[in-house]
Design brief:
The chain has 193 residues and is mainly α. The protein has helices at residues 7-22, 26-43, 55-58, 62-69, 83-100, 121-125, 128-141, 150-166, 170-192. The protein is built from nine helices and no strands.
Length: 193
């Protein structure tokens, strides 16, 4: 990109993103959560991300590929050591707003539609089942202000599987159910020790 990153512009952009998310913009909630989630990986070089899904699922903006490959990520403002707990909070709000806008009573999201039945670009950004799966991954690992909770991870993977199934993503739903079983088994083994 011919335009050079300015640290103050990055900070201002993140502030605007936060304000829009606070105002109820679901797309901004997702982007802010992703920023908090990814910044752990960008700013802590010793931390290896644990992705059950592919790392490309984490990179939701094409511009982020070039951002990560350059040294531009060094311009990111410092983040809280509790960034994952903050990210999970924003992910939850995004999921709640999607499920709250569902026109069906089965808690399945109407992928791609908002409360009025119009197109919702946030679903193109990241479907609800992927958000739930990422939250489950974060709880299964723990850290960065988020306490490891394998039981909750199993519940979230199960919910992700159900939502993916509603969205006619059968293989992905099966994978999420498998991961839920693994999380429940790990939780059981930890409680027996």
């Amino acid at each position: 990109c011919p335009i050079k990153c300015d640290p103050s512009d990055v900070r201002i952009g993140i502030d605007y993103l936060w304000r829009a998310a606070e105002g109820g913009d679901r797309r901004c909630m997702i982007l802010l959560a992703r920023y908090l989630d990814l910044s752990v990986n960008l700013l802590n070089t010793g931390h290896q991300p644990n992705f059950v899904t592919t790392p490309s699922d984490m990179l939701i903006l094409p511009a982020l590929h070039s951002f990560i490959n350059s040294n531009s990520h060094l311009l990111l403002p410092s983040i809280s050591p509790d960034s994952w707990s903050e990210a999970v909070g924003w992910y939850k709000r995004a999921v709640d707003s999607a499920i709250g806008s569902s026109t069906s009573g089965d808690k399945c999201t109407d992928e791609g539609l908002d409360a009025e039945g119009r197109y919702d670009a946030a679903e193109d950004l990241l479907p609800v089942y992927r958000i739930l799966a990422r939250m489950a991954e974060m709880y299964s690992v723990g850290g960065f202000g988020l306490k490891q909770n394998l039981s909750l991870a199993g519940d979230l993977f199960t919910q992700a599987g159900e939502t993916a199934s509603c969205a006619l993503q059968g293989r992905l739903a099966a994978r999420y159910f498998e991961l839920a079983d693994e999380a429940y088994l790990s939780n059981e083994q930890m409680s027996n020790n």
